[in-house]
């Protein structure tokens, strides 16, 4: 069954590449084991990656900013963003929804505010009740759990194909995934994103610039 992936890009230079990708079949077989997976540049190992992510996520100054000064502005922005998805029919108030890499859960709060009540986030560090503990390389959910998944941290994944594979696994048939990607061109190319995304059944991209 079809799963829909929508990419919202912050860099217009990437739009061409992704539009190209939707119309040209690319013969890249999906990786089969962890050792085959492309690792994100700049990290030597999974442990080093987790350590770096935890250090950032647990930074008390950043957490204070995320939950105070940033909170209202971010929740408002996410609410508008998701409201557009309601209008486009990609999301409904009954959608069981997951926000991946949600930190303190501003996007989860936004979904709940616009009436998508059955929404939760995951991150390495939990922030209850909005965000549960979970690594997006190994989502702590059964197959076919969600109707809608959102993430703006795809460009932070150590194993991008594992990240996408886990979304495919936990999204039900006919479910929708929206990835908001802001990524530099050279990283985009080095990640072999084209190969990874060719695993997906449907990819649509939009530029939000
Ligand atoms: C979501 O929760 C709000 C507040 O509790 C409630 O008014 C609304 O009916 C709920 N929406 C759905 C779709 O269940
Ligand atoms: C949920 O959405 C449906 C369809 O748009 C609408 O008819 C219904 O009133 C909504 N329910 C709530 C509780 O907002
Ligand atoms: C869940 O999905 C994965 C990947 O598609 C598959 O290998 C696995 O057998 C599935 N598990 C169950 C319990 O269906």
Defining key terms:
binds 2-acetamido-2-deoxy-beta-D-glucopyranose; 7 strands; 7-stranded parallel β-sheet; alpha/beta; 209 residues
The amount of beta strand, in percent, is: 15-25%
Derived structural class: alpha/beta
Q: Which spans have pLDDT < 50 for at least 5 consecutive residues?
A: 9-36, 198-202, 205-209
Radius of gyration: 16 Å
Straight-line N-to-C gap: 32 Å
Number of helices: 8
Helix content: 25-40%
Order of helices and strands: EHHHHEHEEEHEHHE
Q: Give the bound compounds.
A: 2-acetamido-2-deoxy-beta-D-glucopyranose
What do the pLDDT scores average to? 76
**In order across it, which strands form the biggest sheet?**
4-3-2-5-6-1-7
Describe the largest sheet.
7 strands, parallel
- Gross morphology is globular
Tally of DSSP β-strands: 7
Would you give an account of this structure?
39% of the residues lie in helices and 20% in strands. It is built from eight helices and seven strands; from the N terminus they run βααααβαβββαβααβ. The chain is globular and about 45 Å long. Bound molecules: 2-acetamido-2-deoxy-beta-D-glucopyranose (3 copies).
What's the SSE blueprint?
Layout: E1 4-9, H1 12-23, H2 46-58, H3 60-67, H4 71-88, E2 97-100, H5 106-113, E3 119-123, E4 131-133, E5 146-151, H6 160-170, E6 171-181, H7 185-190, H8 193-197, E7 202-207
Parallel strand pairs: 1-6, 1-7, 2-3, 2-5, 3-4, 5-6
The structure holds 2-acetamido-2-deoxy-beta-D-glucopyranose (3 copies).
Summarize the structure.
It contains eight helices and seven strands; from the N terminus they run βααααβαβββαβααβ. It is an alpha/beta fold and 209 residues long. One 2-acetamido-2-deoxy-beta-D-glucopyranose binds at residues 93-94, 115, 117.
């Amino acid at each position: 069954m079809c799963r829909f992936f929508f990419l919202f890009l912050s860099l217009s230079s990437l739009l061409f590449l992704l539009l190209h990708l939707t119309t040209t079949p690319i013969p890249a077989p999906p990786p089969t084991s962890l050792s085959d997976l492309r690792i994100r540049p700049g990290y030597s190992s999974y442990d080093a990656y987790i350590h770096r992510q935890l250090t950032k996520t647990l930074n008390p100054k950043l957490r204070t900013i995320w939950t105070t000064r940033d909170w209202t502005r971010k929740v408002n922005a996410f609410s508008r963003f998701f409201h557009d998805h309601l209008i486009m029919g990609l999301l409904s108030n009954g959608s069981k929804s997951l926000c991946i890499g949600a930190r303190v859960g501003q996007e989860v709060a936004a979904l709940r505010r616009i009436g998508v009540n059955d929404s939760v986030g995951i991150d390495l560090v939990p922030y209850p009740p909005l965000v549960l503990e979970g690594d997006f390389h190994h989502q702590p959910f059964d197959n076919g759990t969600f109707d809608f998944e959102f993430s703006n941290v795809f460009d932070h994944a150590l194993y991008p194909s594992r990240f996408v594979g886990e979304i495919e696994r936990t999204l039900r048939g006919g479910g929708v995934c929206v990835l908001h990607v802001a990524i530099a061109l050279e990283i985009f190319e080095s990640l072999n994103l084209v190969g990874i995304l060719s695993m997906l059944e449907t990819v649509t991209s939009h530029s939000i610039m």
